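[recover] target loaded
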């Protein structure tokens, strides 16, 4: 991971390490990513509740409130417990379009002690916006975040 992304993770940790409220930490985490990442139009969290994903803190336009497991990019990443990086959401079977401007998406499952607690979802109006480097950074970001949730 490059030094810029290492610094970003350190800033995240400084924002959340002394706060025990999960919603406050997720809110600051989404705001921080919104500041760090360019060419994105939505960044936020969906939290697992009664076997479905429910909208959590985010930055961007209004969003879908509930997503079934296995549905859309978020539900599929959650069900598989694997990062999904989608270069063109219009080619993803069953994509759920909350913002018509979104063209690419990355979803990172949030796993704590082996259990799924939610997902980090980021959309971009640019096709193929998310690189392997972005994925590695966001995976480390999510791992750091869940230690404080």
């Amino acid at each position: 991971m490059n030094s810029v992304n290492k610094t970003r993770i350190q800033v995240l940790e400084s924002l959340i390490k002394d706060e025990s409220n999960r919603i406050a930490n997720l809110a600051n985490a989404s705001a921080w990513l919104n500041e760090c990442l360019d060419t994105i139009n939505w960044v936020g969290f969906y939290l697992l509740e009664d076997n479905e994903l429910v909208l959590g803190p985010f930055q961007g336009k209004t969003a879908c409130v509930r997503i079934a497991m296995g549905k859309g990019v978020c539900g599929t990443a959650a069900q598989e417990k694997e990062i999904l990086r989608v270069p063109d959401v219009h080619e993803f079977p069953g994509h759920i379009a909350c913002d018509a401007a979104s063209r690419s998406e990355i979803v990172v499952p949030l796993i704590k002690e082996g259990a799924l607690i939610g997902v980090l979802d980021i959309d971009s109006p640019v096709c193929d916006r998310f690189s392997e480097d972005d994925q590695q950074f966001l995976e480390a970001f999510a791992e750091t975040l869940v230690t404080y949730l």
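[recover] notes: The CA atoms of residues 1 and 133 lie 8 Å apart.
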